[in-house]
TrEMBL record:
Name of the protein in its database record: DMT family transporter
One matching Pfam family: EamA
InterPro entries (UniProt xref): EamA_dom (IPR000620), EmrE-like (IPR037185)
Keywords: Membrane, Transmembrane, Transmembrane helix
Domain EamA: 16-148, 159-285
TM annotation in the entry: 12-31, 37-60, 81-101, 107-126, 133-149, 155-175, 187-206, 212-232, 244-263, 269-286
Amino acid sequence: MDKRVSSALGGNVILIGVLLMLLGDFMFSLNDAMGKWLVASFSVGQVLVIRSLGAFFVLGPMFARQPISALYCVERPTLQVMRVVFATGDLALFYAAVVYLPLADVMTFYMAGPIYVAALSHFLLGERIGWRRWFAVLIGFVGVIIALRPSSAMLSWPSIFGLIGSFSFALTLVLNRRLRATSDATLVTWQTIAALIAGIFLSIGHWSPFDFGQLLALLLLGIVACIAHLLITRSLKLAPASVLAPLQYTLLLWAVVLGWLFFDDLPDVQTWIGAGIIVLAGLFIFHRGNLKQDSEAIVPTDSSHG
């Protein structure tokens, strides 16, 4: 009976984790749609500045419970700086891309993030990747090229912004693994401060007047993004990452729905094909990674064979 109760409680906790992840993904998609709407009226720098100020409405109470030393007594300062640079680049390039491209097109580039992570983890984290996952990485890159459209459009600035932004996103994820001992509040606070500083520089000479309603929308952008981050962080503490990771592809679904509802944008056939290949390759990488973890948990591996 105790085992049944324990199993039921465990199942409920995992279900809550799944629901929080789905809600967090929706909030991130809503944040992306709001960002696309706002950068149509304001510069990327101005959006970054006021968005960052909005984020502090959530971060302030969180950080008030921690000693101020948590901000500067951090592990691996060099990696912390690198993470902040890549996270800020990811954010700024995303907004720069959605000024010109449909939301679903930009999210297609970002859905390749896990594929980049798999490749980068081999070189930066020393994680061994078998030939099957390398093949899936290669297929995923093919999907990215298809979504980019193999023509002169591949070299358009919006597409380049989306591609480099998604790569910066992947590097941020890899550095997150290296900085697991740093609290989420510290990571997000430095990330927000960096976005604020970058926004100030980018908005010089590009600051537009706004009314009270637009100010609220800009502040809400930061609040929504922070809440989404907290929901996903909490979900990862309640359910296994292997269960939650594939759910991130709902971001692409929401990007299509919100892009159609608010901007009357729908992906063309080529984007759908590229997105499908990227999603399938990413899911296969997750699957092979889970199988490897399960086998290593059962059979100890010889370090000489990785």
